[in-house]
Amino acid sequence: MSNLGVPELLIIALVLVLLFGAKKLPEMARGVGRSLRIFKSETAKLREDDDDTHTVQAQAQAPAQPQPAQPQPAPQIQAPPALSVEEQARQLEEQAAKLRASAAQADKHA
């Protein structure tokens, strides 16, 4: 099963269409795409955390050298943190649900 050719992929696609229907496939693909994006962002965060941990450990193991005193920069006002990808996806899903509900009500009244 290591070599999937065009005929095999077409058979798999046909089975998926028969199982889930043509209307559900784009929705499922979007869900898989969102899940992959979330997974990638989380793994990237884990890698950054690992890199930070290794850097701190390397600095702790290095012999301490006296550093010249430097003036501390003035504290800066930070903007509110940007929404995470998960929060943005959740908000978009809520907006889509509201739009679907209003479209369904409009269809009922029409």
UniProtKB/TrEMBL annotation:
Quote the subcellular location field of this record: Cell membrane
The reply to whether Amino-acid biosynthesis figures as a keyword in the UniProt entry is no
- The annotated regions of Pro residues compositional bias extend over 65-74
Keywords of the record, alphabetical order, are: Cell membrane, Membrane, Protein transport, Translocation, Transmembrane, Transmembrane helix, Transport
**Which parts of the sequence are annotated with region: Disordered?**
43-85
Lineage top rank: taxon: Bacteria
One Pfam family here: TatA_B_E
Q: Assembly state and interactors?
A: The Tat system comprises two distinct complexes: a TatABC complex, containing multiple copies of TatA, TatB and TatC subunits, and a separate TatA complex, containing only TatA subunits. Substrates initially bind to the TatABC complex, which probably triggers association of the separate TatA complex to form the active translocon.
Q: What does this protein do?
A: Part of the twin-arginine translocation (Tat) system that transports large folded proteins containing a characteristic twin-arginine motif in their signal peptide across membranes. TatA could form the protein-conducting channel of the Tat system.
* The protein's name: Sec-independent protein translocase protein TatA
Q: Which organism is it from?
A: Nonomuraea helvata
